[in-house]
Specification:
alpha+beta, 3 strands, about 15% strand, elongated
Length: about 100
Amino acid sequence: MRLAWALVLGTAAGIALAWWLSRDPPEVTREKQARAEAAAAANFEDSRPVLYRWRDDDGALHVTDTAPKGRKYERIPIEPDPAIEVHGDRPAGPR
């Protein structure tokens, strides 16, 4: 009976040791968390709908939903800035 308990305790100790040694150190865990947060932020920024503002050869301003090829452009987020408040209860017409 002692041999059976020794085998059970030895197996449990071996499993606990294997689990302990397989864990990541805290530094690695923090690095993984930082990379995951950066990737999530980049994915969020890329998934937001945007418009592209650019000028053609004649200097005319264009705003499109696709980026122009071979031209400089500016990304304009479609959602308004959270600091901007829009009120629809103002009366129509001139003041």
